[in-house]
Amino acid sequence: MAREPWLVKYDSTCHLAQEIAESIHERNRQKRTGGNPSKLNVTIRTSLQRLQEQISQLKDSLLRSLSTRQITQFEADRRQNLVDDLLTRERQLQTSFKNDGTEPNVMRSSLMSGDQGTGPINPWLMEESEETKDLDFHEIKHQQQRIIQEQDAGLEALVTVIARQKQMGQDIGNELDEQNEIIDDLTHLVDKTDSRIQRETRQVKLVDKKSASCGMLVVIVLLLIAIVVVAVWPTS
After folding, report:
1. For residue 89, how many other CB atoms are within 10 A of its CB?
2. In 39, 48, 196, 201, which residue has its Cα 20 to 30 A from 92's Cα atom?
3. How far apart are CA 152 and CA 157, in angstroms?
4. What is the mean pLDDT of residues 220-225?
């Protein structure tokens, strides 16, 4: 599936900003070693102009997408933050270019920040670590790639753990559904049993009542028979 044009344009702009940072770094190195960076200065100035134009195009395209409801407000806010980061990076590149190589450590720190500035930390104001101080640009870039690979491996492990936890959650949910069905069946069975007990109890009470009535009738009949026998029995 093809990526959205705006995101492709954004990645291209980030790549251009990184290329400018690398060119400024090389320009400063040539100045320190007595080289002639005039050609690089022209290239950097042209690239900075292109960077400004591309950022402006990203802003205009974002406004059109939002006004025509092609993206949600949440996505628009996210993209606006990306554009703001690019604007900050462009201003930092302009400042570094005008410094004319007077702050080499700041430039090298910016190269260590990666292609995209997504955090609140200003990479141009970072102090270079002892691990990278004696490295050239290609060694720094190789170290970046190694760090990214390690981060990718960590993310893959995290994805695996999350997938396993998700499966466990689904299994627990299925087990709870089965237990709820069993409980429903037991509740229905208890209700039926209770109804039968109540019905049988009513029948037993009715039988007891009938039995009591029959016993009284038998006693009355026996008394009548006794009276008749006494009445008709000859006296001596």
Report:
1. 26
2. 39
3. 9
4. 80
